[in-house]
């Protein structure tokens, strides 16, 4: 009897031990503990904010080296430099179409369900001081172009501006490719550096549960349930829209690629959970790059699409922008015509591309659009400041998942994607990492 009990108990304990070693489970456990601490000990919960700040700082420390290594080695290994241009053009085209679709979805949902109707807020009673100072830092085209140009070549690699690092990485990769055999030792050195950088990424990601614990404890302690009562309808409506967007839009795209959306979500569960809890897309960029290479997508595609996608393909933010704008207009009793709404979408399509890498970028775009269109008082932004952090959950989730789907689409389009390997990986939920050399070597027939 004792032997049978022991025999049954051992597999159960071993399964539990395996589960405890899984990063995604550690993140979920940390999230639950963070919520409990935020509710039961709000003072202590607010003091835990540095845990999340430190984790995000560690990730940002490694993001630019990852972008540089992946983009540079990807372009340097190409047999045909025209492929880099093709990938970039296709990616930008895809991003623009999806951003427009996302904004129109938010527009339709807000017009149908009218989340701001009935609030009847008097604009004169609103306090513009509640709007963060960063919201007044309006995006401009010249500012966007300036952000692309680093103060020095090496400064872009050691700094924290992703767009500048991306541009320098592309230029550096093209130069290595054109130099040929003379630059081969330097190319091999960057590949070796890439292996070292991704090892550091693995170490940093093991700290994700601590960041998650601190983030959720702080949010729950700071905002609590009281701040959600008045805006609960907007939160529920936006969350439902995000779920439908994932199931309908991203689901249709994955079906067209003959892959499982839920399989992809299972494969990226740790990254999606970290993004949700920390509300930071950058927190998962390094690991997402590695995961998509494991999935079977060529490094040139991953290296160009992911860094640029995290700057330009923010579908969750696009849904938020139109829904939040109409919510504010409805809350203060302003009836926007469909012409005014379309103008607003056009302005957002421009301003949203100028806030790449800016903390709270979606809120800044919202402020820029409100000011540019001129129909909604800027002080109205104070209505959603308290719940913007919660709305950011849906934005970040779609941004991360949407960019993973975009990489699969561009990889399929470029014939630089091993679909059979992807199906095997998504079916099993995991796969051994490919050898570092294979990730840098272009696939045969990729340019045909």
UniProtKB/TrEMBL annotation:
It is a multi-pass membrane protein. Residues 426-448 are annotated as: Disordered. Pfam families: SDF. It comes from the Bacteria. The chain crosses the membrane at residues 23-42, 54-79, 91-113, 153-179, 200-225, 231-257, 358-384, 396-413. InterPro entries: Na-dicarboxylate_symporter (IPR001991), Na-dicarboxylate_symporter_CS (IPR018107), Na:dicarbo_symporter_sf (IPR036458). It is found in: Membrane. Keywords: Membrane, Symport, Transmembrane, Transmembrane helix, Transport. Gene3D superfamilies: Sodium:dicarboxylate symporter (1.10.3860.10). The keyword Membrane applies. Its main location: membrane. Coiled coil: none annotated. This is Cation:dicarboxylase symporter family transporter.
